[in-house]
Write a structure and sequence with these properties.
Distance between the termini: 47 Å
Order of helices and strands: HHHH
Low-confidence stretches: none
Shape: globular
Largest sheet: none
Number of helices: 4
Mean pLDDT: 89
C-alpha cells in the first residue's frame, strides 16, 4: 500500500492536493474561530483570505513535490486539483458578491 503512494502517480497527486487543501482550510477556519472568539471580532479574517492562504499552501506543496521530490505526475495532480478548486471558489465568490445571474 505504501509503495503505491510513493509512486509518481497522477491519482496520488489528486488525493494529496485535495487532502492538503481540506486540512489547511479546516485548520485556518478553526484558527479564525478561536481568534474571533478571543478578540470578540467576528470579522477577524475577511472572507477570501482563508481561501487564498489555502491556495498558496497548495502551490507551495506543488513546488516542493515537483522540484525537491522530482515527481512530475504527482505534482500535476496537485496542480490540477488546486486550479480546479480555485476556479470553482472564485466563480462562486464573484457570483455571490456581484449578483450576476
Amino acid at each position: 500500500m505504501w509503495n503505491k503512494l510513493r509512486e509518481d502517480n497522477f491519482l496520488t497527486g489528486l488525493m494529496a492536493g485535495l487532502l492538503s487543501m481540506m486540512m489547511v482550510y479546516a485548520g485556518l477556519r478553526m484558527l479564525r474561530s478561536a481568534l474571533a472568539e478571543y478578540y470578540g471580532n467576528p470579522f477577524f479574517f475577511p472572507t477570501p483570505r482563508i481561501e487564498l492562504i489555502t491556495i498558496l499552501c497548495n502551490v507551495i506543496l506543488f513546488r516542493i513535490v515537483i522540484i525537491n521530490l522530482k515527481k512530475d505526475k504527482t505534482g500535476r495532480g496537485i496542480l490540477f486539483i488546486t486550479v480546479l478548486l480555485s476556479m470553482i471558489f472564485f466563480y462562486l465568490f464573484f457570483k455571490m458578491n456581484n449578483k450576476f445571474s
